[in-house]
């Protein structure tokens, strides 16, 4: 069956150019970059080449790039290092819509006696900035706010927040896993101290991440070991994946315009056609400040897992904020934080596109999804003869 | 991705008996939009008192739809007495099994069936019996007891999988655990009471309990505990590490250390902290 992959915020296809870049480092060039001979020097050289490509996508300098094993490790490292650097400060600020890598770290620290402030969002998923600023204090060790939300695609005003946090002399970290490669980012023109990336979200391999650490930021390694990464992250470098990530960043820079024009147009068409063809459907999130590839749509009175599995039969891949898909019993914390009513939260589907999607992919979804929703609604006790009993 | 059986997939993709019987003999509705699943079951009896038609409407995930579809198929041809005996396990078994996390879908089927039978017999709609334990999903202590007994559940996660209780905020976990303990007869203090311990036995048992039951939990949070002395039923301990300066150390001492020692050693023990 032909796969129509619209779940690129979950993970992405490794770009063929990326795979090609990686392969020699599994076979031919297996030297340890730390070794002294020329044979290993080739891998060390590749490592630095990749580092500079990553730095260039972010507007950073090479020595500010620390390779990690994933986005989660980057997020954990950033928060831990800020806490260790400020042992007297017992307060951290984050948001109610963070990825679990930050959210659950906050919960863990709250169990260790830290005060954790979670900034709320409004019904469109926009942060309550006044609430954030009001809570900044001398006791705050770090503020961590994601650049863009993985479920709704809503982009937060990171430049502005970083500036306000910096003025108070507080460390600022952003989980930019969903933003990097989709929207232009230039850390040199911001006050961001640390920023997390994950390789597999931008057509790189899984198992590789980056933490950008601004020069001059106090740092304690999270993974304690050898001198690798300038003593900031122990463990022999994952050379093949780092090479792949370097290539992926180079490609992301080259595709940035396409992402924000062609991919955005595909997303917009998908969204508007679905809303036109399916009654009682709404977009979750602020459509004015959104990643170009993401849409989250709530279909009233249907359950997300059922929608996903019916689409699965047609090879269409997407994800849902529904409870049933995760094994938890409550819909996603992001949709709940936004106050999305249960009627829509259980039936919310996220489509996330990439440069590999085509008009044809979108045509198929536009054609196949409306009858699926119709069929499930007809099965529901909240509908009578296919008409919704309740109006929202 | 859930591992659904082919039968679950079949009943989900090709559900049998969708709809409502207009002149139904019995109707049962359970669930709500907030909970994420809901089922309306209707059935019609023939002249011999056997169910000759059953239909469902379901809002929910694939396993909820499959469980409802399976139930309507199972019901056809049954007398009400036979139908009454259907358990959630029977529904799951008919489908070749359900993922553990989805067992509540089969329980929903059983509940709707019970309601429909009660409706047919004209019995007054049973009020929610017992006391609500899980506020998030509106589950009572009696419902929890029933699902534990019927399915031989042993852990809070099981209860959540079967009846959703405890799957939201988590505030009811302690109550669910108490119900589980009671049903499993795990009331250790009762057993211990019978045996009169010598001082040496008591100290040894306290040390063992500290090592096995208490220290691992405290160590996870960077703390520790040390036994200083035992005088009759008074146990003197010193809190170490992060526990020492912790603002909730008294809670730790009473709700955790003392509770465990009473459970495993003797019911009358009183734990007191010795400050260094």
TrEMBL record, chain A:
<keyword id="KW-0408">Iron</keyword>
<dbReference type="GO" id="GO:0031071">
    <property type="term" value="F:cysteine desulfurase activity"/>
</dbReference>
<comment type="subunit">
    <text>Homodimer.</text>
</comment>
<protein>
    <recommendedName>
        <fullName>Cysteine desulfurase</fullName>
        <ecNumber>2.8.1.7</ecNumber>
    </recommendedName>
</protein>
<dbReference type="InterPro" id="IPR020578">
    <property type="entry name" value="Aminotrans_V_PyrdxlP_BS"/>
</dbReference>
<dbReference type="InterPro" id="IPR000192">
    <property type="entry name" value="Aminotrans_V_dom"/>
</dbReference>
<dbReference type="InterPro" id="IPR015422">
    <property type="entry name" value="PyrdxlP-dep_Trfase_small"/>
</dbReference>
<feature type="domain" description="Aminotransferase class V">
    <location>
        <begin position="4"/>
        <end position="364"/>
    </location>
</feature>
<keyword id="KW-0663">Pyridoxal phosphate</keyword>
<comment type="similarity">
    <text>Belongs to the class-V pyridoxal-phosphate-dependent aminotransferase family. NifS/IscS subfamily.</text>
</comment>
<dbReference type="InterPro" id="IPR017772">
    <property type="entry name" value="Cys_deSase_NifS_bac/arc"/>
</dbReference>
<dbReference type="GO" id="GO:0006520">
    <property type="term" value="P:amino acid metabolic process"/>
</dbReference>
<keyword id="KW-0808">Transferase</keyword>
<dbReference type="InterPro" id="IPR015421">
    <property type="entry name" value="PyrdxlP-dep_Trfase_major"/>
</dbReference>
<dbReference type="GO" id="GO:0046872">
    <property type="term" value="F:metal ion binding"/>
</dbReference>
<dbReference type="InterPro" id="IPR015424">
    <property type="entry name" value="PyrdxlP-dep_Trfase"/>
</dbReference>
<dbReference type="GO" id="GO:0030170">
    <property type="term" value="F:pyridoxal phosphate binding"/>
</dbReference>
<keyword id="KW-0411">Iron-sulfur</keyword>
<keyword id="KW-0479">Metal-binding</keyword>
<dbReference type="GO" id="GO:0051536">
    <property type="term" value="F:iron-sulfur cluster binding"/>
</dbReference>
<dbReference type="InterPro" id="IPR016454">
    <property type="entry name" value="Cysteine_dSase"/>
</dbReference>
<comment type="function">
    <text>Catalyzes the removal of elemental sulfur atoms from cysteine to produce alanine. Seems to participate in the biosynthesis of the nitrogenase metalloclusters by providing the inorganic sulfur required for the Fe-S core formation.</text>
</comment>
From TrEMBL, chain B:
<feature type="binding site">
    <location>
        <position position="136"/>
    </location>
    <ligand>
        <name>[2Fe-2S] cluster</name>
    </ligand>
</feature>
<keyword id="KW-0535">Nitrogen fixation</keyword>
<feature type="domain" description="BFD-like [2Fe-2S]-binding">
    <location>
        <begin position="132"/>
        <end position="179"/>
    </location>
</feature>
<dbReference type="GO" id="GO:0051537">
    <property type="term" value="F:2 iron, 2 sulfur cluster binding"/>
</dbReference>
<comment type="function">
    <text>May be involved in the formation or repair of [Fe-S] clusters present in iron-sulfur proteins.</text>
</comment>
<dbReference type="InterPro" id="IPR016217">
    <property type="entry name" value="N_fixation_NifU"/>
</dbReference>
<keyword id="KW-0408">Iron</keyword>
<keyword id="KW-0479">Metal-binding</keyword>
<feature type="binding site">
    <location>
        <position position="61"/>
    </location>
    <ligand>
        <name>Fe cation</name>
    </ligand>
</feature>
<feature type="binding site">
    <location>
        <position position="169"/>
    </location>
    <ligand>
        <name>[2Fe-2S] cluster</name>
    </ligand>
</feature>
<keyword id="KW-0001">2Fe-2S</keyword>
<keyword id="KW-0411">Iron-sulfur</keyword>
<feature type="binding site">
    <location>
        <position position="172"/>
    </location>
    <ligand>
        <name>[2Fe-2S] cluster</name>
    </ligand>
</feature>
<feature type="domain" description="NIF system FeS cluster assembly NifU N-terminal">
    <location>
        <begin position="3"/>
        <end position="124"/>
    </location>
</feature>
<feature type="binding site">
    <location>
        <position position="35"/>
    </location>
    <ligand>
        <name>Fe cation</name>
    </ligand>
</feature>
<dbReference type="InterPro" id="IPR007419">
    <property type="entry name" value="BFD-like_2Fe2S-bd_dom"/>
</dbReference>
<dbReference type="InterPro" id="IPR041854">
    <property type="entry name" value="BFD-like_2Fe2S-bd_dom_sf"/>
</dbReference>
<dbReference type="InterPro" id="IPR001075">
    <property type="entry name" value="NIF_FeS_clus_asmbl_NifU_C"/>
</dbReference>
<feature type="domain" description="NIF system FeS cluster assembly NifU C-terminal">
    <location>
        <begin position="206"/>
        <end position="271"/>
    </location>
</feature>
<dbReference type="InterPro" id="IPR002871">
    <property type="entry name" value="NIF_FeS_clus_asmbl_NifU_N"/>
</dbReference>
<feature type="binding site">
    <location>
        <position position="134"/>
    </location>
    <ligand>
        <name>[2Fe-2S] cluster</name>
    </ligand>
</feature>
<comment type="similarity">
    <text>Belongs to the NifU family.</text>
</comment>
């Amino acid at each position: 069956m032909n796969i129509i992959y619209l779940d690129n915020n979950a993970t992405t296809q490794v770009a063929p150019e990326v795979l090609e870049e990686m392969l020699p480092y599994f076979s031919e060039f297996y030297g340890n970059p730390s070794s002294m001979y020329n044979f290993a020097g080739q891998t060390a050289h590749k490592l630095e080449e990749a580092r500079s490509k990553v730095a260039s996508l972010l507007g950073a300098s090479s020595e500010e790039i620390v390779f990690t094993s994933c986005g989660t490790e980057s997020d954990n490292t950033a928060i831990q290092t800020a806490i260790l650097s400020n042992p007297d400060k017992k307060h951290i600020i984050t948001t109610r819509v963070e990825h679990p890598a930050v959210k659950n770290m906050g919960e863990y620290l709250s169990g260790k006696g830290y005060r954790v402030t979670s900034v709320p969002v409004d019904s469109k998923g926009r942060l309550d900035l006044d609430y954030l600023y009001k809570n900044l204090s001398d006791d705050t060790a770090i503020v961590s706010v994601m650049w863009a939300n993985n479920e709704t695609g809503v982009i937060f005003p990171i430049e502005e927040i970083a500036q306000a946090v910096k003025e108070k002399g507080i460390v600022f970290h952003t989980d930019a896993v969903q933003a990097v490669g989709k929207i232009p980012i230039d850390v040199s023109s911001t006050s961001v101290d640390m920023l997390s990336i994950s390789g597999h979200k931008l057509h790189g391999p899984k198992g590789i991440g980056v933490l950008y650490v601004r020069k001059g930021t106090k740092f304690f390694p999270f993974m304690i070991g050898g001198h690798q990464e300038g003593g900031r992250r122990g463990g022999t470098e994952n050379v093949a994946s780092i090479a792949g990530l370097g290539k992926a960043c180079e490609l992301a820079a080259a595709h940035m315009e396409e992402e924000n024009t062609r991919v955005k147009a595909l997303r917009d068409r998908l969204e508007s056609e679905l809303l036109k063809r399916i009654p009682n459907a709404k977009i979750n999130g602020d459509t004015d400040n959104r990643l170009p590839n993401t849409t989250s749509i709530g279909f009233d009175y249907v359950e997300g897992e059922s929608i996903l599995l019916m689409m699965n039969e047609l090879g269409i891949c997407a994800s849902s904020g529904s409870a049933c898909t995760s094994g938890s019993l409550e819909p996603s914390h992001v949709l709940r934080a936004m106050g999305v009513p249960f009627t829509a939260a259980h039936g919310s589907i996220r489509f996330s596109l990439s440069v590999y999607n085509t008009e044809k992919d979108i045509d198929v979804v536009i054609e196949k999804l409306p009858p699926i929703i119709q069929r499930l609604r007809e099965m529901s006790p909240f509908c009578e003869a296919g008409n919704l009993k309740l109006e929202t | 991705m859930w591992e659904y059986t082919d039968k679950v997939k079949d009943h989900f993709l090709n559900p049998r008996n969708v709809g409502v019987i207009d002149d139904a003999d019995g109707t049962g509705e359970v669930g709500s939009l907030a909970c994420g699943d809901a089922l309306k079951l209707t059935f019609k009896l023939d002249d011999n008192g056997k169910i000759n038609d059953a239909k469902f409407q379901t809002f929910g995930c694939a396993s909820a739809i499959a469980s409802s579809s399976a139930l309507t198929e199972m019901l056809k041809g049954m007398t009400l007495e036979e139908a009454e005996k259907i358990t959630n396990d029977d529904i799951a078994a008919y489908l070749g099994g359900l993922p553990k996390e989805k067992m509540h879908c089969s329980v929903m089927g059983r509940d709707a069936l019970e309601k429909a039978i009660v409706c047919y017999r004209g019995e007054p709609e049973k009020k929610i019996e017992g006391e609500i334990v899980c506020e998030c999903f509106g589950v009572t202590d009696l419902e929890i007891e029933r699902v534990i007994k019927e399915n031989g559940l042993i852990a809070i996660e099981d209860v959540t999988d079967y009846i959703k209780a405890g799957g939201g905020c988590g505030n009811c976990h302690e109550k669910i655990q108490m119900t589980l303990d009671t049903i499993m007869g795990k009331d250790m203090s009762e057993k211990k009471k019978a045996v009169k311990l010598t001082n040496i036995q008591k100290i040894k048992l306290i040390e063992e309990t500290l090592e096995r039951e208490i220290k691992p939990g405290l160590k996870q949070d960077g703390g520790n505990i040390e036994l200083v002395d035992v005088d009759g039923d008074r146990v003197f301990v010193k809190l170490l590490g992060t526990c020492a300066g912790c603002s909730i150390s008294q809670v730790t001492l009473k709700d955790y250390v003392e509770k465990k020692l009473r459970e495993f050693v003797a019911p009358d023990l009183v734990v007191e902290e010795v400050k260094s």
